[in-house]
Structures are given as C-alpha cells and as structure tokens.
C-alpha cells in the first residue's frame, strides 16, 4: 500500500470520487456537494488559513494502484484545548484495519510535527455544525453536511485507540399533534400572561433587514461562553444570505421582551432531500434539478439549526412559551413538514438534552467525536459538561 499527498487536480478529484465509488451501492448515502468539501482545503475559500490554519490530505492506494482510502488532517487556530489538539476528518476506507491504521498514522505523525499532542476525529476543518462525528447509530439518510459512514468504521477507530470525547445526539419528533411535558406547558402559560413578551416569525423586510441584529444579540449572550466564539452582525448577515435559497420564513422564530430579542430557534427545510438529486454538483443541470424538486418535490423534514435563550431568561419558561406559541400558531396551522430533527446536541449539554426530552423528541441518530492522545500514558479526559 502507498500513501499519496493530495496536490494535483487529478488527486483532488480522486479524493471526491473515492467516496462515490465506495458508497455506490448504499441507498442511504447522499453524495455531498463537491464544492462544499473542496472549498475547505483552499485559502481562497476557507478563512482559517489566513489566521494560521493548516491542512493536508492523503490518498491510500493498494498494490494495483486502486484508491482504497483517504484522510485529511488540519490545525484549527481557534481551538482552545487543554493540550494542543488537531483534527482529522473526511476519512473513508475499505474494511481493512491495516489500511485504516496507515491513514490514522499519517494524520498523527503530521499533527505531531506541527506540535500537536492529540487529534480529534472525524471532524471538520471549520465549525462544529458541519461534518462532525462518526455515525454509530441511526443509519438513515444524512442531514446536510453531516457524516454518513459504514458501521465498520466504529471498530476501526476504536481498535486504533480513539476514545469517545463526546457523544452527539440528533433528536427527532413529529411537527404536528405533539404534546409537551406538562411542566413545560405550565411554565409557558405564566410567561404568556406577561404582555411584555412577544413571540413571532419575521415577516418581509424585517427578516432580511433585522435578522442579523436580532440573531447576533441573542447568540452572543446565549452561546459565546460555551462555544468560545462571538458572532458579528456581518457574519449573521452572511449566514442569512447562505440560507436564502431555501429559507422558509415560518421556520425562523424569535422571542422578544419589551421589544428586545431574548430567544430564537432557527430551522430550515432539510436540503439534503433536494441535494440527493444533483449528484454532488450545482452546475446548471444541478441547479435546475434543485429548483424543480424544491418546487414539485419539496422536503417533508425540517432541520433545527440553533436554539438559544439569553442567560437572564433561561430556566424561567421563555423557551417553553416560545415553543408552545410556535406549535399552536405556526406548526399546527401553517406547516406541511412531517418531522423535525434537531441539529446534534452533545452529551456535554444536559440542559438542551432535557429540553428535547420535554418536547417529546427522541434520539434518532448518534455520532461520536473521538480523541486520540499521542502520549498513550496520559490520562484521558472527556469533554467538560456545560453547567
């Protein structure tokens, strides 16, 4: 077997095609957009390179010159870990431990050369909302930009010595006809009696002009201390621009107190139900297929991207009121979606797990984010739990 570093146009194409061939008989796999993957590895399209990020990719060939595996490793300068930690991802391999271990070794050795002491995988060279974690339970079609892999991958990772750093749960429930936990219903009633609170979706110009400001204000209070990252109004506007081709105004919902945003949840139609028809390419034909299916064969599933309540209103029933108002006034009356899946929640976030359980949602898929310590004598620690 021979490792090749990806450097040429042909090798970059083979990095994509290797996975296409590997999963060609798997009906549940949905081919990611080629551009979504390729853009991660170029300074022109991934700003992490400009702040010190580094990335490398490999192909693994058998003795006959056939590609039997691929892998990538990267340094994300934004990561703040107890020990310097790099990432590995976009791993694909035949069911052969020797081949898999060669790919893991390549990532380990390169990261060690960069001064790292551990590697997490499989993860993304970017944010946690994309390509993060190995699928271990729930082998239904993947949501957009989430890993789908064969079940044997778990054995390959764990045999090499990777340990579970945290588990990621994707919850699902029906959109309509769902009752909530009685305590949640009661807390909601108390908030809704207070006329200073208002819960609504954003209509028309308000969506396009005010969403970035509203989102930034709530996100930076609700999530920044956990994720170690704030978001600017410009970044929020860019996020909205990216969602524009698929956004459904009914799926963007905010809570306000005395006119100030204090909570939100952001959903989108599950667009992998559309991208599965474009064969990885949004060229002219791909765009036409996307538009046709969006119009005549629209998604029947919605995906919950992010949920947040500012700290001063957490635990007081605001989330309950927002959800019950949405259920009664939007979900039951205006939506045709059948199910909703919540973007993964780590087992380090028990508060959000309890919210999902109170919504009568159940775990539908489980992913693992693994960590491998290069010093095999060093004690392993799992991801700290959010308090």
Question: Explain this structure to me?
Answer:
α3 packs across α4, α5 packs across α11 and α6 (204-222) packs across α8 (233-243). Strands 1, 2, 3, 4, 5, 6, 7, 8, 9, 10, 11, 12 and 13 form a 13-stranded mixed β-sheet that branches. With 387 residues, the chain is an alpha+beta fold. The mean pLDDT is 92. It has helices at residues 9-22, 34-38, 97-113, 152-160, 182-192, 204-222, 224-227, 233-243, 272-275, 284-296, 318-334, 350-358, and strands spanning 2-5, 54-61, 67-75, 85-93, 118-121, 134-137, 163-174, 197-201, 252-257, 260-269, 301-309, 339-346, 362-373. The N and C termini lie far apart (47 Å).
Brief account:
This is N-acetyltransferase domain-containing protein. With 387 residues, this protein is of the alpha+beta class.
The main sheet comes to: 13 strands, mixed
From the alpha carbons, calculate the radius of gyration and give it in angstroms.
22 Å
Task: Pick out the low-confidence regions.
Answer: none
Please tally the β strands and state the result. Answer: 13
- Calculate the mean pLDDT score and round it: 92
Note the run of SSEs as H and E: EHHEEEHEEHEHEHHHEEHHEHEHE
Instruction: Output the structural class.
Output: alpha+beta
Helix share bin: 25-40%
Terminus-to-terminus distance: 47 Å
Question: What is the percentage of strand-forming residues?
Answer: 25-35%
Summed up, the helix count is 12
**Basic shape:** globular
Oligomer: single chain
Organism: Cyclobacterium plantarum
Protein name: N-acetyltransferase domain-containing protein
InterPro entries: Acyl_CoA_acyltransferase (IPR016181), BcerS-like (IPR039968)
